Amino acid sequence: MSIQYLLDENLPHLYREQLLRLKSDLTVWIIGDPGVPPKSTLDPEILIWCEQNKFILVTNNRASMPVHLADHLSQNRHIPGIFVLRPKASIGEIIDDLILIDELGNPQDYQDCISHIPFI
What we know:
This is DUF5615 domain-containing protein. The protein has a single domain (4-117), classed as Rossmann fold (3-Layer(aba) Sandwich), CATH 3.40.50. The chain is built from four helices and five strands; from the N terminus they run βαβαβαβαβ. It has helices at 14-22, 43-53, 65-74, 91-104; strands at 4-7, 27-30, 56-59, 82-85, 114-117. Strands 2-1-3-4-5 form a five-stranded parallel beta sheet, with helices on both faces. The longest helix has 14 residues, at 91-104. It is globular and about 35 Å long. The two termini are 25 Å apart. The mean pLDDT is 95.
């Protein structure tokens, strides 16, 4: 099963451009793209969309995302995963990890949890 990424609207589009430049068959959408939640959608709604569409959320929201995930799970819901970007990581380190996760990762390893990338 291939991993699909939904990038938070606050992340630079450079992330998608670089991911697709290095791995053109990767599915990388950004909040606000056609067919995904529009910009300014509340985090709980984004988590529901990710659950229904089997996308891992990639975000820099370190503050409130743990609370939203806990609420989501308490409603007996699930999420393919959330990747939170480490604040001092370079774009290259993050891109490398996202590609490595797609190529070698097991999607079940990330289900219902927050992982910080790069893994370092």
